[in-house]
Amino acid sequence: MLRRFAISFLVVLLGVCAGARTRPHYGGSLRVEIEGDPWQSPDGMARRLVLDGLTALDADGGVTPALATEWKSDDNDHRWQFRLRSGIHFHDGSPLTANAVVMSLNLSCTANCPWTAVRAVGSSVVFTSDSPMPNLPALLAGDAYLIALTRTEDGQTPANPIGTGPFQLTNSNNGVLTLTANENCWQGRPFLDQIAITANRPIHDQWLDLSTGRADIVEAPAQDLRLAQQQRLTVVVSPPVELLALQVSDTGALANPVLRAAIAQAVDRGALSNVIFQKQGEITASLLPQSLTGYAFLFPAERDLNKANELRGGLTPPPLTMAVNGDGTMQLAAQRIALNLHEAGFTVQVATGHNNARADLVLRKLPLEGADSADALAILLHAAGENASVTWQGPSALFRAEHDFLDLHTIVPLLELPRAYATGERVRDLKLRADGTPDLADASVEGAQ
């Protein structure tokens, strides 16, 4: 009996110790390294730590309250009213008001806004539009519409971004952005005291710093996931959250829809997936994932070079310019697509840093977010510059809407890609948001008290 009691006591004690060891603690600093700019929109890692939106997307992509506690629509979705959460202050102590929200939105959205006008009405923000806005709550969760203070109480323009989020920007020096915990955050104080984000760090250097203990969280791009597994890195991987797509101009040299259709037939998605992205991208010819709609398989994704040449016929289009939004891997993908199009009779020059507005083709990544398929389609199209509203009227109607849009061949879907991050031994409770970026507000580090 004594032996059984001793064994039982030891098991309980070990369980308590394990729970105490893994339970999040307040304090500590987290060191993060990324290839890009932590403040650049969209998807700048620091933006969602410092700023909040009127709404947010939870981990599953559902729309949830944030700075707004509730909302309602009138006039067949032509008018929306969002009631602000009371008692919220910006990091400098200024109160969050409807006027401050309107000023921020007017500054951040100067073109292709989902609304026609926005104004403050008491403690509410009211949006109106000449066309219906059924997806507005989901769109307002986007990075472009996060709320920042534009004028301090003494009428000055803030030197640094000031928001209401769990962290506030305290320093930016030598490529390192330092964020400090917001003690009075309306969501509750984050566990971490500080986050240091090192920008413009190559992936090889990130992984080296992780292995030597100089970094806690680094990026693991889709094309490097297999290598990360071979190196036994601890990796957190999202479901597909980005759509690699070729955006095709419908003006100038490609105003003819037959030429755009030929381009869509000429692209070899299999080569992009197998060679460039190391089989980490799901091949697709649909805008939305199969898991969300159930009909993505109905869009044929196989390359048909004969069909491409047949569509082009005797037309000889002038040389085309392709811009690329992204890193070296995106450049390689663009070069591969240019080779595909050359085989179909097109001449394409890949231009690094070219102005997207003047390019005939743009290779880019578009967001795959939202638990509601109609919202997800609206978010994707809005990111592509298409101010389209999508109303849920059943899967058949959604399929027709997507089919009709794809028939324009202004967006050619290619691959669905995940996002992933490698973590060090100190990191605890790291989860990814609906867009695949890390939710550092709820993360903690081992050894914090």
Blueprint (SSEs and pairs):
Blueprint: H1 2-22, E1 29-33, H2 47-50, E2 55-57, E3 63-65, E4 68-74, E5 79-84, H3 98-108, E6 117-121, E7 124-128, H4 136-139, E8 167-173, E9 176-181, E10 194-198, H5 203-211, E11 217-219, H6 225-230, E12 234-237, E13 242-248, H7 257-266, H8 269-276, E14 282-283, H9 290-293, H10 305-312, E15 320-324, H11 328-343, E16 348-351, E17 361-367, H12 373-383, H13 395-406, E18 411-417, E19 420-423, E20 427-428, E21 444-445
Parallel strand pairs: 1-10, 15-16, 15-17
Antiparallel strand pairs: 2-3, 4-5, 5-7, 6-7, 8-9, 9-10, 11-19, 12-19, 13-17, 13-18, 14-18, 20-21
Helix pairs in contact: 7-10
Question: Can you walk me through this structure?
Answer:
The protein has 449 residues and is an alpha+beta fold. The chain has three domains: 114 residues, Periplasmic binding protein-like II (D-Maltodextrin-Binding Protein, domain 2, 3-Layer(aba) Sandwich); 89 residues, Dipeptide-binding Protein, Domain 1 (Dipeptide-binding Protein, domain 1), CATH 3.90.76.10; 176 residues, Roll (Dipeptide-binding Protein, domain 3). Helices cover 28% and strands 22% of the residues. The strands form six sheets. The chain has a six-stranded mixed sheet, sandwiched between helices. Strands 1-10-9-8 form a four-stranded mixed sheet, with no helix packed on it. Strands 4-5-7-6 form a four-stranded antiparallel sheet, with helices on one face. The longest helix has 21 residues. The radius of gyration is 24 Å and the shape is globular. The relative contact order is 0.16.
